[in-house]
């Protein structure tokens, strides 16, 4: 059994990302895994990093401290998020900017190949991504840029490996039969803690 931390990265109170996060959580709990679930909408923090470099840092708000504690507790991290304008929602990016800090998620005193050592190693990740961009177009025209950013420059940088992705495209106007298939897929992933 695994300790799983799920972050619904959609800033709205209700969303498809929230539904996926909750379905995953139910399936994982049903399979005997320990689960913690956070909704970005419920978190209170200033998303503006506000400084250049890491010489000055704002104290982290309690909600950001809890996110870091839940990540440290976890063995598997799940992020459910939409893709907006080719990237992450601003509040989610702000959470990463503010909380993924030296000494908390990476170690600048332990450099390997010119990069700081990750501090969240030994953990896997799953990203459940929604978009209106068709998968084939995302691959051919955008070279899966957001997937690469998440896998290499964010999750991998702090130690989450492997990082697996489930991409549901054309998500804004999904037909109910398609949505049912997507929900079944998320249930299966959750039950297997994948």
Provide a descriptive summary of the structure in words.
There is one protein chain. With 194 residues, the chain is an alpha/beta fold. The chain has a single domain, classed as Flavodoxin domain (Rossmann fold, 3-Layer(aba) Sandwich). It is built from 6 helices and 7 strands. The protein has helices at 16-30, 62-73, 90-99, 135-140, 145-158, 176-191, and strands at residues 3-8, 34-39, 76-82, 106-112, 115-118, 123-131, 160-169. It has a 5-stranded parallel β-sheet with strand order 2-1-3-6-7, with helices on both faces. Strands 4-5 form a two-stranded antiparallel ribbon. A hairpin with a 2-residue loop joins β4 and β5 (115-118). The longest helix has 16 residues, at 176-191. The mean pLDDT is 95. Belongs to the NAD(P)H dehydrogenase (quinone) family.
Give the helices and strands, then pairings.
Elements: E1 3-8, H1 16-30, E2 34-39, H2 62-73, E3 76-82, H3 90-99, E4 106-112, E5 115-118, E6 123-131, H4 135-140, H5 145-158, E7 160-169, H6 176-191
Parallel strand pairs: 1-2, 1-3, 3-6, 6-7
Antiparallel strand pairs: 4-5
